[in-house]
DNA sequence: AGTGCGGCCTGTCCGC
DNA sequence: TGCGGACAGGCCGCAC
């Protein structure tokens, strides 16, 4: 499940192979993603030079002079660099064939991801225009979070997972950051103090930053192997540990559901 | 406007 | 061993 560190690791991994390279053609074997892959994609991209590879939240942006390819990996998507002619795996839905003989291959078993074609400023696209700040940027500050918590009755975990508040905080890292900050996931957002917000912002940044560092060590996998970034290698303190002892106080971790998401916390350490 | 929930999907795991 | 069903989850879009 690609979280923000994995998307950024993917961006860095594919960038050297795409930047200033020409796209010979695009092959769409399965257009039925979250939204249909637009017919225009293949014809518009043919012969285009990739001028930049950016990221906004969990969206990757492949920029060309004519427009931008917006790629979201959803739950199970991945991008990998294949050699043209390399055997297809099941769920290899789209190929971006480069003049270099490489091929950027989109793979997505559950098809929750998306590939869209956007002309004009992609930041004005409805999917991007309303997104909150990047979690690792200066704009995501304790003051900002406190302001966004004001008047909100949702659980704090739901709030930090809302991409309109801050992008890139998925379920795993929301659980981990709340544990590290000592905040109960069901605490009403409006009831967070400045101190809570300071701890929470710090821990969100730290957990993402750590994962990014770990992911960065496996870049070569994007070219050769199965493209599995190493962010899971970091030890998760609560996620997936429901019923097991809290690593700080040995109290059994509690597992509940919050907004249809598996939620794990220590009933003693998190208040 | 804010809130909560349904739905999209398939691989994996569990119990029978 | 085979089968059905529950579960996992990002995030849009809808209903209230």
Describe the structure.
By secondary structure, this protein is of the alpha+beta class. It has 2 domains: 4-124, N-terminal domain of MutM-like DNA repair proteins (Alpha-Beta Barrel), CATH 3.20.190.10; 142-265, Orthogonal Bundle (Helicase, Ruva Protein, domain 3). The chain is 26% helix and 20% strand. It has 7 helices and 10 strands. It has helices spanning 4-18, 40-45, 126-129, 142-149, 156-160, 171-181, 194-215, and strands spanning 23-28, 52-56, 59-63, 68-72, 78-83, 92-98, 102-107, 114-118, 254-258, 261-265. The protein is elongated and about 60 Å long. The protein starts with a helix and ends in a 6-residue tail after the last strand. The relative contact order is 0.15. Mean pLDDT is 89; it is low at 216-231.
Describe the structure in brief.
Helices cover 26% and strands 20% of the residues. By secondary structure, the protein is an alpha+beta fold.
Helix percent band: 25-40%
Total beta strands? 10
Count of helical stretches: 7
Oligomer: single chain
Mean pLDDT: 89
Based on the coordinates given, report the CATH architecture of the largest domain: Orthogonal Bundle
Low-pLDDT stretches are: 216-231
The CATH class name of the largest domain reads Mainly Alpha
